[in-house]
Amino acid sequence: MRTVGGDLAATLSRLFEEPIKLSAAGRTDTGVHASGQVVSFTTARSFPFDRLAIALNSALPSDISVRECAVVDANFSARFSAMQRRYVFVILRRREASALLARYAYHVWRDLDVAPMLEGARHLLGTHDFTSFCGVIPDNGNTVRTVAALDVEERGDLLRLHVAADGFLHRMVRTIAGTLVECGAGRRDPGSLPDVLAARTRTAAGHTAPPQGLYLAGVRYPDGYDSFAEPFLFAPPGTISPSSR
Fold first, then answer.
1. Which of 120, 97, 117, 127 is nearest to 109 (CA)?
2. In the prediction, which pLDDT does 237 show?
3. Mind listing the pLDDT tens digit for each residue in 112-123?
């Protein structure tokens, strides 16, 4: 099965004429998108790096694009040097589905009340044990994460969930999205979310929202670099937000 990382590594290996192993800032499930992914790799070969993005985009499949490339310190790792990651989750809230947005938004056929979703989101801010929102516990057993931002915005028929944290657990954002949808639909009391966190069991939280609405939108590093790129559904008119499948 094709993967973005696999296609990118294969293309880099051809360009550099040596095997290239990538380190990615975030791993995404099948069907999840990325507008601000960051990868790093090492090579002993020379290359006009100011033209690497052009070379890659001319060789990559049409559903993958590279925005920029740079030479970094040898100790840099796209994954381990990251300070914060940001995700955007998109919900289409209307009775009719959209054929055009089927791959890019989670369709919820009923209207959703944003106020209880915001109330529920408020309870998830800060440092908590997010076991209840984790699909597979990490090997190191650490399920504590610090959520710095969790917003829900109305954009016409679309809802934009924005989550920023120092790290994320397996399917954490999708489970947060599914839980907040239940709050907005009146099926879950947003005031119960502290109890959901305290339960530390996956069955306490809501359903896992489908991957199609999720975007890895940005990664921030200690030097101030932030790869954030708004998913194309919300990008300002006249701009292009790079997005991979």
1. 97
2. 59
3. 999 999 999 999
pLDDT at 46: 86
Annotated catalytic residue within 7, 29, 73, 129: 29
pLDDT band at 243 (very low <50, low <70, confident <90, very high): very low
pTM, full prediction: 0.92
Going along the chain from its start, the domains and CATH numbers come out as: 4-80 (3.30.70.580), 84-217 (3.30.70.660)
Query: Can 50 be counted among the known catalytic residues?
Result: no
Spatial contact of 196 and 205, defined as CB atoms under 8 Å apart:
yes
CB atoms within 10 A of CB 31: 12
